[in-house]
Structures are given as C-alpha cells and as structure tokens.
Design brief:
signal, transmembrane helix, transmembrane, Glycosyltransferase RgtA/B/C/D-like domain-containing protein, membrane
Length: 464
C-alpha cells in the first residue's frame, strides 16, 4: 500500500467519523443534563448573580455554586432564539469541533492514518461523555492544553494566553481544573528533570496564574471548592463510579497508555513530564467513568507520536495545513447542512414523557410532584412551576436527601413517610421502578404512560 493510499485512508476515515457525528446530532435531544442546563441558563441571570444561583425546589437547600453558568446561558440563549433544533445544531457543531480538534492535534505528531486511528480511539473512549451539555467544551480543551504544554516542553516558551482561557473555561465547565493539573504535571516534570530549573519554575507561574484566574470569575473563590462538593455525591452518580472494563469505554485509553509508555520508554524518548502525563491518564482510567474520556484525550498525542516513530511512512508535515484547512471547511459545510436538517428531526425531545405535559401544566405553582432524577431534570425546564423532589443537578441537594430519595425510589422501608411528607399531587416515575408498584398497591391510580415513564395520581386522601 503506497504512502498516498495510507494518507487518503486516514482522511477518508475521518470524514466517515465526521458524518457519523453529524448524524448523531441530527436526532431529538434526549440527555437529562441538557434540560437542567437549559433551565439554569434561563434562570442564572447577570454574572454578578452567579454566586447566588436560584433554587428550583424546596428540597434544594445546599449552598452551591454553578460550574457551567456561561455555557448554560449560551445554550439557553440559543434555545430562546431557535428552539430545540438550535440546541441540537449547537451540539453538532460541538461534536465536529471536538473531532477536528483531536485530529488536528494528532496530526501534529503523526501521519493522517495514524492520526485518524488515534482520533478514533479517543472518540470511542469519550463516547459516553459526548452529550449535549457543557462538558463537551472541556473535551475540546483538554487535548488542546496537553498539546500546548508538550510544545512548551520543547521550546520553553510560556503560553500566558492559557490564563485568560482558563478564566473563560472555569465559567463553562468544572473540568477546567484538569487543564491546570496538566500544566502542573508538565512543569513538575521539567523541574525534576532539570537542567534549567529556573525556567521550569517560571513556567509553573502559568498554571498558578490560571488557578488564580478561576477564583476571579463572577462565581468567586468558592468555585475552587466545587470538586469536593462533587466528591461528596460521587457514590450517588453512575458516571462518577469506577469504570468497568466490561464496557468498551476504558479500553481505548488503556491501550493508548500502554502503547505510549512502552514504545516511548523502549527508545528512551520518554521525558519525566510525559511520564507524568501518562500516569495522569492511567489514573483517569481507574478513577471514575467520567474521567475515562479525559484519560484518552490526555494520552492520545503521546500515543500517536510513539506509533509514528515505529512506521516507515513519513509525517507528511508539508501538506498538513492545507489538509486541516480543507477538513475544517468540510466541517463548516456539514454544520450548514445540519442547520437545515435539525428543524425537521430535532424539534421534539426524546425519552421524556411529553404526553404528560397537559396534566403537568395544570399543576399549581409550588405544588410537589414525586419524581426520580431523570424526570426531575425534564420537569424543572419544561414545567418550572412544579416543586420537584430531586433533579439531575445533585449539587443543589443535601447528600442525606439524595440518599433518602434514591432509597424511596426502590421502595425501601420508610417510603410511605417520605411520600406523606412530600404530599405530591402527581408522580412521574420510570415504569417498572419498585416505587411504582408500591404506590399502585397503596391506591395510587395510573393516569398515563409515555416514553418509559408512568404518571400516577394519589388517592383522594392525598396519602399512600
């Protein structure tokens, strides 16, 4: 197979991936986090109010701060102008940007075919996180930050523009802290390796300044404490649980970590800083499901570089800029086509009980609806007058309430007292949930079923 054939095989593979992601975006929105982010963006108000976000439920009594106010506000603004098709289009643009960014970074270290292979592995590893929510911004920026710090390792230049970028990133998603950690890892590696420790110490000012910049957002210094808030609730959130190798997502990152570590170390080309990045990626694989995506994005530049050094065909750097420019133009054309398609394919949501809307619209302001978290995320956006018992924004709820609510959904002992105190006028629950059967047995009436949910009405006494 000729070098030209290898080159076009890589580009063809990327075009197929681009088309696939565009088709994913041209579907009805269905991720539960999309809904509460739209509500957050609508309610968040001016930046000087971000440190005191609104509460959507009488049960949401935790003092919390939003980690994605700017991104949520942007999503909500698009929805107000263009409806759900506009949000779907924004999602598609984000997916294409993610793919082209990862490929462009890989292409700086490898030929088209190997860059496409690395991009595909990173995409598979991140597939569980590529939904219509602000996290997509972090998935674009993490590999960019890795690439920038690898360049800094080579030329010793401080990229001070990372500081204002981190300031913006900190208002878009909580994984900004990963970008800062990458900077500290590389500068620590440079300090350990020498010989120019003074230069390495100067470079360490960049992540330090980035950390300070994050504390200067409208949310304030409390933003620095949000990782600890998430950690308190991690045992209640499935994507924050340790990733299982029974699923496919951890495998691409694990393969890339092994390849990068073994191939670079075997040729004695692995620097201390790169070793720390590989260790950081390995830690992300075993930490939890959400950091698996980050692990692959951190290690992919090192992996493709290691593979490129083992093959006979050249990097083909001369055609890289033209190639990338054409790919970005192709992505822009796909975004235009997507904008024409989504009004016909994404104007209605999916996996939410829209058949209940008329009945839920009739619920008076402040009346409680008994619900589980996915339904709550939909309710707080589509039916904002409803007092939910929980929604997907777990940061706003005390851990004790979350634990109790999740046990009630399983009809654990004491559920009757919980329901009696809540005094709900309706219940929106996942069909087949143990609580559904318990409520039916205690006199609740099935009103409707839709999209895997049931709508229940309490007996006339209002008590189970």
């Amino acid at each position: 197979m000729s070098q030209r054939a290898f080159r076009w095989a890589g580009i063809a593979a990327l075009l197929i991936l681009m088309a696939r992601l565009a088709s994913v975006a041209a579907q009805p929105l269905s991720n539960a986090d999309t809904w509460f982010n739209l509500r957050l963006g609508a309610d968040i108000g001016a930046p000087w109010h971000w440190a005191d976000p609104p509460q959507w439920s009488t049960y949401a009594t935790t003092d919390w701060v939003p980690t994605q106010p700017l991104a949520a506000a942007a999503m909500s603004a698009v929805e107000r102008v263009a409806g759900l098709p506009g949000v779907a289009w924004l999602y598609g643009v984000g997916l294409l940007t993610f793919l082209l960014t990862v490929y462009g970074i890989c292409r700086a270290y490898a030929s088209p075919l190997i860059a496409a292979l690395g991009t595909c592995l990173a995409l598979i590893g991140a597939s569980g996180s590529l939904s219509a929510r602000p996290q997509l911004i972090s998935l674009v920026l993490v590999p960019l930050v890795v690439h920038v710090w690898l360049r800094t390792q080579e030329d010793g230049r401080a990229r001070w523009w990372l500081v204002p970028m981190t300031w913006l990133w900190a208002m878009c998603h909580g994984f900004w802290i990963v970008g800062v950690a990458i900077g500290f890892a590389v500068t620590a590696g440079l300090l350990l390796a020498g010989p120019s420790r003074r230069q390495a110490a100067r470079l360490a000012l960049v992540p330090l300044a980035s950390l300070a910049a994050a504390a200067l957002t409208p949310v304030g210094p409390k933003l620095l404490l949000t990782p600890f808030v998430v950690n308190d609730r991690s045992h209640l959130i499935s994507e924050w649980q340790r990733a299982s190798f029974a699923s496919i997502e951890p495998w691409p990152a694990a393969i890339m970590v092994v390849l990068a570590g073994v191939l670079l170390a075997s040729r004695k080309q692995l620097t201390v800083a790169e070793g720390l990045l590989i260790a950081m990626a390995a830690g992300g694989i075993v930490l939890n499901g959400r950091t698996v995506a980050l692990a692959g994005l951190i290690v992919v530049p090192l992996c493709v570089r290691a593979l490129q050094e083992r093959v006979s065909f050249p990097l083909d750097a001369g055609s890289r800029s033209v190639e990338l420019r054409r790919l970005w133009l192709t992505g822009a054309a796909m975004a235009v086509v997507l904008g024409l398609v989504v009004p016909h394919t994404s104007d209605e949501p999916a996996k939410v009980p829209t058949a209940f809307d008329a009945r839920l619209d009739a619920v008076r302001d402040g009346e409680t609806v008994l619900n589980d978290p996915p339904a709550g995320s939909w309710l707080v956006w589509r039916h904002p007058q409803v007092n939910v018992v929980v929604d997907g924004l777990f940061d706003a709820y005390p851990v004790s309430h979350l634990e109790r609510t999740l046990s009630v959904m399983q009809a654990q002992p004491g559920w009757q007292a919980y329901v009696a105190r809540a005094d709900p006028v309706l219940a929106v629950l996942v069909a087949g949930e143990p609580l559904v059967g318990a409520l039916r047995d205690s006199g609740w009436r099935l009103v409707d079923e839709d999209a895997g949910y049931v709508l229940l009405e309490p007996p006339k006494s209002g008590r189970p």
